[in-house]
Amino acid sequence: MAKKKTDKVRPQVLKGFRDYPPPEQIARETMIGNVRSAVELMGFLPLQTASLELAETLLGSHYTDDNLAELFGFVGPDDVNMALRYELTVSLARYVAANPNLALPFRRYQYGNVWRVDKPGPGRYREFMQFDIDIVGTSNILADAEIIAAMVAVFDGLGINNYKVKYSSRKIMNGLIKFAGIDDNKAADVMRVVDKLNKQGKDAVIAELGAGRTDRSGDKIKGVGLTDSQIAEIEKFLDSVSGSGNSLETAESLLGSVQVSVEGINDLKAIESHLSSMNIDKNKTEIDLTIVRGLAYYTGPVFETVLLDLPEFGSVFSGGRYDNLVSRFVGKQIPGTGASIGVDRLLAALIELKALKLEQSVSKVLVTVMDPERLPDYLKMLHQLREAGIPSEIFVGDSKNITKQVKYADKVGIPFVLIVGSNEFEAGQVTIKNLKAGKEKAKETSEREEWLKAEEIQVTISADKMLEYLKGELG
Hints:
The protein has 475 residues and is α+β, with helices and mostly antiparallel strands. Helix content is 41%, strand content 20%. Strands 1-5-6-13-12-11-7-10 form an 8-stranded mixed beta sheet. A 5-stranded mixed beta sheet has the order 15-14-16-17-18, sandwiched between helices. Strands 2-4-3 form a 3-stranded antiparallel beta sheet. α5 (141-157) crosses α12 (259-277), α6 (170-179) runs antiparallel to α12 and α11 (247-255) runs antiparallel to α12. Mean pLDDT is 91; it is low at 442-448.
């Protein structure tokens, strides 16, 4: 009789998506915990908004089917057009607009996944996590200084020292566009191209502002179509403020006749003064007038953070002021400012810098089961460990073989193994094997007998000393 075939489903992940194995997820949770602690110290409140939003929330009321196709959009229940959020800021704006009794200014932090229908590539996924901080409901430039101070606090809390939070103002660039005689309808494209300065270099930016260019892959990049004289004004400005220690004075001399640029310059002077009064290390922040930020909704100060030891990672914490985003929902201006962390990019940087270790397990102790009849006694030990705050687990597998149980602990990265057999129970003792020390000792000696006798690898102690010993070893 022929065997009946069973249908098998191939275990694959969608293109542009990925899984996070325990070591990476443990590291992510540790990093997020540190960031949360830093921003909560500064009064930011947690908020979680819906992952799915109405299409018009994300795209505006005049969106088209083509616009919806640019998101993970679809027609849901009750024939409602909806889409997965592509960032957290728009959802925040919707939340503020929908809660008119919210106390303003509203300081909030939020972290969660967002989804974008972008072309996947190395390190670029269609689902990724962001961590945002925002202050909504005030035009006071002190709020922007607080965002920068929070960015500094986050990196200090993560144990990173060699970084720079750079900031500028879109008002200065708006003034430059006006000064150069560029049409307002091209302003967003100019901002988008100039934002590529640090990544692509000045030559690529100048070419793209004009007729266009060919990128490294051979693809044609359409140009903005500015005139030679307009490009010359932008190039003159970029050359004048790049690497300049007195960039504000330089900008003032070039654009002092344009009111909006003067406003931007004064905003940056105020931020600099506020940061000084807050005793923020001057070596960790810097005015850089070449920073633009590509998003069209920024209206004032903009900020980004560069890891000086890993400049190739680009900006890992960036944002700016957006004074008109909430108005699309309520018809009046409710200004806001904030910044966002690309969680996975920052995590990769922390691992690269060895500021964060990949831990294989959250458990620190495995209680082995040598004698199933003494299971209640093993469970009492497990309770003691957990009650003392030591993350622990008991071996729940089918094998009674102690060697296999120890191998399990070694494989999942549990550093200590608790072994108690009939002899130990009778003597009121426990044997504790330090697997991490065992690995280190194995690197030092090839003699098995010497390895087995090493005190740092395995000790037998009185059961009432178990907790004290483990706490000492775990620090």
